[in-house]
Each structure stands twice: as C-alpha cells, then as structure tokens.
Write a structure and sequence with these properties.
117 residues, WH_DNA-bd_sf (chains A, B), HTH_ArsR_DNA-bd_dom (chains A, B), DNA-binding, DNA-binding transcription factor activity (chains A, B), WH-like_DNA-bd_sf (chains A, B), mainly alpha, 12% strand, Helix-turn-helix domain-containing protein (chains A, B), homodimer
Chain lengths: 117, 117
DNA sequence: TAGATACTGAACTAGATGGTTCAGTATCTA
DNA sequence: TAGATACTGAACCATCTAGTTCAGTATCTA
C-alpha cells in the first residue's frame, strides 16, 4: 500500500478486523490460555489457531511463552493505547466536521426564512 | 472466517488497517473532496482511489454523493463510536489483567522475602 | 521406554486486497 | 457541438488471508 508510516497501526487494526481474533482477546482478558485450549474454544485446528496467535503477536497485542510442550498466550503489555488515541482523535474530527455542517445549515435556514431583513 | 457476529466492526477495522485510508479520513476531516482530488493527493489512479472509497463506504465511515460528473466524499455520520467503545472496553480489560498479575507478583515477593515469618 | 499430548512447519486451497490499464459513458465548457 | 473532464467497470496481476491436512519433533506420563 505504498505509504509506510505507522506500520504498527496497520498491523493492529488488521488484527482487530477479525471476529475470531477479537474473541481471543476477550478470552485472554479472562485468563491466559494455551493454543490447544483456544483452538478447542473456537472450534478450529491447532494450526489455524496458531496463525491467529501469530497475527496478534506481530501486532503486539498478545505475547506467548513456551514452557515444556505448552505455549501459553497472554495479553501484550503494550495494550491498545495507540489505537485508542487514533480512534479518539478522529472521533473528535468527525464530530467537529458535523458541527461545522450544522452551522452552515443553520446559516442557510436563517437566510432562507428571511427573518432578519 | 466462520464467525458472523459484528460484521460492522470487521469492516471498519479492516478499513482502518490501511495507512492510505486513514489518510483519506484525515483529509475528509479538513473538508469534503472529490475522488479526483483525493487520487491526486495520494498519487494514485482514479480507479485505485475509487476502490479505497468503496471500502470506507462499505464500513460506513464515508458517504458519497454524485452531482453532475463529480462524486463528492465526506465523513459518514455514524462516526467511530462503535470502534471507540470496543477499544475502550478492551483497553480496560488489558489494564485489569496487568493489575491482577502485579498482585500475584507482589504476593510471590512477600512470600519469597520471608519478611512476615 | 511406549504412547499420548502439544506444538511446528510445509504445502495447498479459495477468496480477498491493493493496485494497475484500458475502454467506455456522462457531463461540462468554449 | 467538439473536446476536456470525471467517473465507472471489466480484466488482470501479485500478494495476502484464513483456513485446511499431513508429517514431523519435543515433552510428559504411566
């Protein structure tokens, strides 16, 4: 996609664009889990779940650690701060835009209704 | 991806996962724009830009209207409310999780340091 | 130490994505 | 009314995605 600014946001929003992965984050919020237990919970092959975990891990949303034969997944410490900030800044931008439009409409109505002349 | 819950979040997070599309939202925050002007600004073919706009439109983040031969793009009224809510709820979930871990670590240190016996 | 369990990696699939070009059609403007 | 402008749509391409199966390897457990 040419523009290489903010690769982390690219990765994390892409990670969040899938309902299964959002579900995994939900689940890890309730407690750490192995890949096998997550695969069971989401009715998917181990390999399929591993791929989802890799996507979340590349985005920094999840970290994993292998102890013995079990790889345990938990929420990443970096959290969703950057994403929350982007969304919040732009939510305000949306609102400001509509406030500006309301202003214009109000202006047009005032002129149209001929109240002031 | 099997799980059909919350398609809107799927679509909007996917729309936001591309730097060009986030740039388009930035731009539309500063004022409405035609597809041609956006294509110029982002150095892309008209057709390429049209596809990005379609992605944003399907996600409800942008609305367009054709007047004469010009299609004007503006920010959608639905804003980023649902996305902000999901992110905020889960940001808290991340934090709660780490608070719980801190608690455990503090507990372990207390037992380990043998201060209390 | 044999068998079960937990993961890993390669290979394959169908379908989406982010772009392009090229050939229209519709609308404006001189 | 001719030419320029603004978009639209089809077709193509390379790459990614979300899944699968199958064949390992490593680690536990009886």
């Amino acid at each position: 996609m040419v523009q290489y600014l903010s690769p982390p946001l690219d990765l994390s929003f892409a990670a969040l664009s899938d309902a299964t992965r959002r579900g995994i984050i939900d689940q890890l919020g309730r407690g750490d889990a192995s890949i096998t237990s997550l695969a069971d919970k989401f009715q998917m092959t181990l390999t399929g779940m591993k791929k989802h975990i890799q996507v979340l891990e590349r985005a920094g949303l999840v970290v994993t650690q292998k102890v013995g034969r079990v790889r345990t997944c938990k929420l990443g410490k970096r959290g969703l701060k950057a994403e929350a900030e982007w969304i919040e800044a732009h939510r305000k931008l949306f609102e400001a835009r509509f406030k500006a439009l309301d202003e214009i409409i109000r202006e047009m109505k005032r002129e149209g209704s001929d109240d002031s002349s």
